[in-house]
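Entry 14. Ran structure prediction on the chain below.
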Amino acid sequence: MPISVLVRGHTASYFPEGKDELEVVWSGPITVRQLLADLGVDSLLVMRVNVNGMKVTKEHILADGDEVLFFSPPAGG
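Output, structure tokens:
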């Protein structure tokens, strides 16, 4: 099950190899939260998740061919 992962913001540095675009493959259903855990990313680092252009929760179950976009919390000060 291929899933496209896009990351926006400073959170990209926590994803494998610091990439902001990944293609990942899983053999069965997986939630957004499980995807983050399997990628080694703390779900608290992700403020918002869109799947195929729609805002979803981290409990959303991903489907074959989904495009997942992660946004990190704003930083600064």
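The CA atoms of residues 52 and 67 lie 5 Å apart. Will compare against last week's run tomorrow.
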